[in-house]
Structures are given as C-alpha cells and as structure tokens.
Amino acid sequence: MHLYPPRYGPEWGSGGIFGLTYHRGVLYYTVAMEAEAHFIHDDGFTETYRFQGLGPGPASGGDTYNAVDVVDDEIFFGGWVHNPALYKGKTGGSGEIDFRNKYSHIHVYSVAEHSVKLLWSESIHDEYKWAGEVSQITYDPVNDRLLIGRADGHVNLGIYSLPRRGGRVEKVSETPGLKGALFLDYACFDMQPNWLRGVDGIQCVDLVSGQLVKYSVESWSRISVDGGGVEMRGSGYGISAYTRYLHFFRGGVLVGNPVEPWIDEPRFMRLFDFGRNPYAPQRSNALVLGGGILAPFNAYTHGFLHGYKEGDNVLAKHLNTVVGPSVLVYITPPQARIVMALGARVTSMAKRGGEILVGYSTTPNLGGRDASPLDAGVKGITIVSEESLLSASPPPVVFRVYGWMVEGNYFGGIPLSGYREPRLVIDSKRGNRLTIYHYDAGLPPDIIEESSLSLGEGRSTVDLKGYWGIVSFRLEEADPSAKIYIILN
C-alpha cells in the first residue's frame, strides 16, 4: 500500500500509521506527524482531512496512540494536533516546539455522508505545556457515549465522557489513564498517575451504575508468574478475551479480573522485558484474531539524542540500544508464539477480510530536545494474509541484551513455542549463576519449572530445547560487561 517518506510535520522524531480501522467498506488511518486522516472507500472514493476544523494549518500530529472506535456507520477518531504548527528552531543542534496551538480533539467521520465533523477540542495555549491528549476512545453502548482516556499532558488528565453526538465533556476519574478496552459490562483503563513509573493498576467504569472500581497492584513480584518485579511500566494497550482483561505494557502483560480480583486475581506475565530498554508494546494496538490475541511488541518505541541535563546520556544509552526486531505474538492460552518478525515499529493493525494490515514507522518517537520540522521516519502499511499468519512457523529471531541493561533483575519472557533449536549464549568475564523461569500463557498463567545452572568465565551456551513455554532469566550477580544473545531458530 502507500508509503509515506519524511514530510513536513514539526514534532519529536516520527509518528506512524495510527488508528488503522476497516469499517463498512472504509479504511481509515491517520498519518502522523503529518496530521493527515485518510478515508479510503471500497468503491474508489478517497478523502484526506488535514484537521482544518482546528486551525488554518499547516498542521502536525494527529494521533500517536490509536484513539479510534466505530458505531453504526460512524468512525470516531481522536488524538492531538498542532494547528498551525510552531517550530521554534534549533539551538546547539537541538530543536524545540511551541505548544500554544496544540489541541486535544475528537472527530467523527460519517461513512454514508462522506463527511468529517469536529465533536470536541481543547487547548490551554501554553508555550511549554498541553492539555491531556486523547489516547483512548471506548464506546459505551449502554449510555451511548464515548469514554476517553487521557494521561499524556500536563492538565485535564483522567477518564472523561462525551455524548456521542457531541457536547460537554465530564470527568469520570481523576486518575490518568492512557489505554483501555471494554471488559464484560465495564470499560477499563490503566492507572498511570506517574508516566515515568507507568501502570500502577486498572480502573474500570461500571456502564450500568456508573461506579468507578479500582484495582491497585501493591506488589508486582507477588503477582508475578516468575516471582520478579517490573519497572518502567509504560502503558501499551488493553484488550478483553476469555472473560479476562489483559493490559500490555513495557515488561509484559497484566491479565485477570480487576473488577472482582477474588474471583481471578490479575497476574503479571513477563514478556520481552529487557530492563530499561524501550522494547515494548507501546503506541500500537492488539487484535482479536481467530479467537486469540495478536499482540505487537516494538523494538524502538522511544528514544532521544539531545537531553536536557548531564545524566541524560545514561538514559539515552538504554533507550537507543536496539535489542532485536519487532515481533507479532499470537496468544491462544496456554500458548503464546511468535508469528512474525519486523524490522520496524508496528504502530497499528486492522483486519480487512482475510488480510491483516500492519502500519509501521522506521523511527521512534523522540524526546528531549530532538524536535525537528519534519517527521523523520518512513511510514507505511504492510498487508499480511490472515491464513498465512495463523499457520506460519515462527520466524528466526535474535535478541542481544547487555548486562548493564538488565543488571541483577529478571529479564526476558521469550515465547519458545515452535522453535527447534533455541539457545542462550552469554559472553562474560567472570563466572555467574543463571536461573531460568519456565511458565505458560494459561488463564491464569502458571509457572512450569525453575532451574539454575553455573556459568563459567568466557562464553557459555545454554540449550533451551527442553522448554516449550515462555522463559525468563536472572543472573545471580549483576555483570555490566556481560553480552547475552537469545537465539531462536
């Protein structure tokens, strides 16, 4: 399909193809940071909306979290937009954005009328701060309203409601929530009061009574399948299946019943956790496919080159190290298997007939003083056959992890299903002891076995053929100089 090279769109780094949705013969997506919403009808009619309802342009942004839902013949899409975009220029090799024209927004597209309407927008018109972006739109079919997640911003964060036909927004929860999904007769969102720390639990709105139910995680290690904690839990996406709510974030997934934890207490299952590295399911979305869950994990979601203070170079080293390819994981409890490896950041997915559309960007969302007048990435859409994806053998994959990245913490969470010769290779200047945690993706997920072995100085190869589920690891002593390869073939 279409390929979008770097074009004018002042912001940090790159956006991607967001909001991919196929509904009633219309394919919708937004190209960010260019702020272009595309509507492509099966009959050949196409329309591009450049957010002129918010200002004179040129605009930038659009959406970077997949804020979209559909009702009847309407497509509701939201996010944030600079209109007109104000680029302040570079100083000492680093750039900045002026946020005075940054708007949070919700629009609706009528499939029948081929028209776009602005339902709601908000801006605080501040040079350095902005109102909470719209990162999640969940339709409430009981009350015919939109529930809105907002956690990226400085003011007006939390969960809000908006009548489907437009009107005044009302705050439902004070706690910032970035992503979520319907779960039974609730609408659930993460709780992320501190974006640096990430997800602290789940908040759910009872669609019948309006009551807000909160589930807070007091100890991540206590509910962890492998017994280890998890840091930097930046929110990814939520999805509901098997009468459980699953919330993916950097480090893994929280799965269970957050409304009635005494029935099925949520458990933390580690998946693709590489310490402070930004390998994560962030800025993407999951799909229900064949009754299972197709979940992307991205190689390079966030980074920065020009920091604000002296210590930023340490964080930049963690963020800018690419440990492996992006992967699509297909979860059918108690199994999870890698079905596709991609060299780009997966920003959104949609199902169209027997096809899976995968939106991507080659460049991460940057930060610090990395603003530029254009989107720095190449963006596009890859089309994959649903049949080939579900029947595919797992692709060969290599992850390269450094000791300074994981220190003495738990890491990994690698699905081994379908691999015949998986192994772990460690280069170290000293001996150590490695513990391997073997668990499944059942409901609830459960530990299968735990084993330990001694590692000598130099190169050690650990055969993983005896493990068929998911494996995570922990070195007894932190070894910053260690180089670890997880080889799947």
UniProtKB/TrEMBL annotation:
Tell me, what's a Pfam family for it?
A: DUF2139
Q: Please report the organism this UniProt entry assigns to the protein.
A: Desulfurococcus mucosus (strain ATCC 35584 / DSM 2162 / JCM 9187 / O7/1)
**Which superkingdom?**
Archaea
Note the InterPro entries from the entry. Answer: UCP016666 (IPR016675)
Q: What is this protein called?
A: DUF2139 domain-containing protein
